[in-house]
Amino acid sequence: MNPEILSRSISAIVVAIGVGPGVGVELLARQVARVVAVDPSAVMVDETIRRNRRTIDANLVEVVRTDAADLPLGAAQADGAVAVNSIQLWEPLAASLAEVARVLRPGGRLVTLTHDWAIERNTRRSPDAWAEWVRELATPVGLTDLTYRRAQAERGRSVTLTLTKATPL
Q1: Which among 3, 19, 79, 145 is least surrounded, fewest beta carbons within 10 Å?
Q2: How many domains does the chain have?
Q3: Is 128 in contact with 87 (CB distance < 8 Å)?
């Protein structure tokens, strides 16, 4: 086995939601202890498996065909969650955010990056209104401290959101 596969800079479990062809999973797997990659598309799951075969065989990556509302982790098992251009597709969004909150450990973070055009097309909201809507749905399920940033991405403007799983009192 390649020793590079076993060296990780962060001993964390991260769930990657809506992974597409697995490019981000490949990059993430180089940085964390374990990646649980999920996507509802059979085609994208197959591509992710093909691209990440070595890290899957090394038990560092798990790929599951599912969506954000049904994550294959127990309560408080993930240190973080990441979604790139997928949160705008989560249906229903409230249930999906609740599911992410369920699998995150207290203090764990959900980090998203979404193109403006994807938000506008899929939610019929402006990025600012969408971010506020996400905050309204996330807060009751224990995802708090929303950080909202505007960014320039390859295909235009984008939004990054970070939400933190509240620590019980």
Answers
A1: 3
A2: 1
A3: no
pTM over 0.85: yes
Pairing of strands 143-153, 78-84: unpaired
How far is Cα 8 from Cα 63, in angstroms, rounded to an integer?
19
104 is written with which tokens? Answer: 């995150």
Q: How far apart are CA 41 and CA 20, in angstroms?
A: 8
Q: What is the pLDDT of residues 118-158, one digit of tens each?
A: 999 999 999 999 999 999 999 999 999 999 999 887 778 99
Beta sheet of 61-65, edge-to-edge order: 61-65, 32-39, 10-17, 78-84, 104-115, 156-165, 143-153
| 2/67 Cα distance (integer angstroms) | 31
Asked if 86 and 15 touch (Cβ cutoff 8 Å), the reply is no
**Which residues constitute the domain of residue 135?**
3-165
DSSP-assigned letters across all residues of 6-46:
H--SEEEEEEEES-TTSHHHHHHHTTEEEEEEEES-HHHHH
Residue type present at position 100: V
Residue 102 burial (CB count, 10 A): 17
pLDDT in tens, 1-59: 344 444 555 789 999 999 999 999 999 999 999 999 999 999 999 999 999 999 999 99
